[in-house]
Amino acid sequence: MSTPMHDLDVPPLPSSDAPKVLVTGAAGFIGAWTLRALLFEGYCPVVFDLKEDRRLVADICGSDAANMLHWHTGDIRNMDQLQAAAMGTERIIHLAGMLTPGCRANPRLGAEVNLIGLLNVFAIAQTLHQKGVLYMSSAGVYGPSGAQYPSLQRCMVPLS
């Protein structure tokens, strides 16, 4: 059993009857820390991510946890893949998304991943009668000035 990030406590592995929570985008930094918190709270996280790279999760949660997680590789834009991953879970934590530089480089893909992906999560949660959905955003919603609250002003100003 490897210890995560040298001096961190190893989270307990979930029991067989632990409630299952789907975490989209779980292979990233915030996702791995979310998995760790879920394990400490007694949940059984289920991963849905574009890639099956468990290294960061192993660093943060320990290799035993990273290896035992039920890992679904898929695209948040694909309803069938998302629904297959969500089967048997009671909640969804939605972290999958593209950051601002990727959205600038490919606005259509950014909209598909960030908007359609979120709508897919809500639709699957409704279809499967999930108890709840938690979704996050980045600091980008506050704009380049780092305002205290998200602003629609940027959205209302014509770009040309």
Automatic annotation (TrEMBL):
Catalysed reaction, written as an equation: UDP-alpha-D-glucose = UDP-alpha-D-galactose
InterPro entries named among the record's database cross-references: Epimerase_deHydtase, NAD(P)-bd_dom_sf
Pathway entry: Carbohydrate metabolism; galactose metabolism
Family: Belongs to the NAD(P)-dependent epimerase/dehydratase family.
The name this protein goes by in its record: UDP-glucose 4-epimerase
Keyword Transferase attributed: no
EC number, as in UniProt: 5.1.3.2
